[in-house]
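The instructor's notes for this session suggest beginning with a concrete chain rather than abstract definitions. Hand out the sequence below and ask the class to guess, before any prediction is shown, which regions might be ordered.
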Amino acid sequence: MQNQNDAKFGFTASAENLNGRAAMIGFIAAVVTELVTGQGVLHFLGLM
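After discussion, reveal the predicted structure:
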């Protein structure tokens, strides 16, 4: 059994949960940016 204070590296459940939540926040931010500005994220950032 692993102690909660032990370092966790690799594909752990907590790392996957954090990555999933960050992806959801990024996706919602991209959609909101597109709705507010009327242009895609890449156009908004000046990359296209």
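Then share the key points. The CA atoms of residues 19 and 42 lie 22 Å apart. The two ends are 51 Å apart (CA to CA).
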